[in-house]
Amino acid sequence: MRWMKDPIMVGSEYLWPGRFHARLHISTRQYARIVRERVSSIGLEATAYGTHTMRRTKVTQIYKKTGKLRAVQLLLGHTKMDSTVQYLGVELEDA
After folding, report:
1. Do 69 and 89 fall within a single domain?
2. Looking at the predicted structure, is the pLDDT value of residue 9 above 60?
């Protein structure tokens, strides 16, 4: 958590701010490289993990823990609840 107190993070709305002032956040390519490096560093096969896998896993965990479909919808940036339900693979009646 020390990195959250780093001066570059203070006031940033991005978890990973960019290194240049013109870019407020890192690119998807940079994020993919970080995921690949971290996965490899702990001895896992990097090709089995990706940025989308991480995104989907986290929101699935949040939904299972809280049951708050609307929160997951907002996190994913979906405009339609149906999209979120389909993305999670749950039945709307169960949600």
Report:
1. yes
2. no
Confidence of residue 91 (pLDDT cuts 50, 70, 90): confident
Specify the pTM: 0.58
Do 74 and 35 lie in one domain? The reply is: no
Find the angle CA(53)-CA(64)-CA(92) to the nearest 5 degrees. Answer: 95
- 59: containing domain: 51-95
Same structural domain, 58 and 83? yes
Rg (CA), the chain: 16
21: amino acid identity, one letter:
H
The domain tally of the chain equals 2
d(CA 95, CA 35): 31
Are 3 and 44 part of one and the same domain? yes
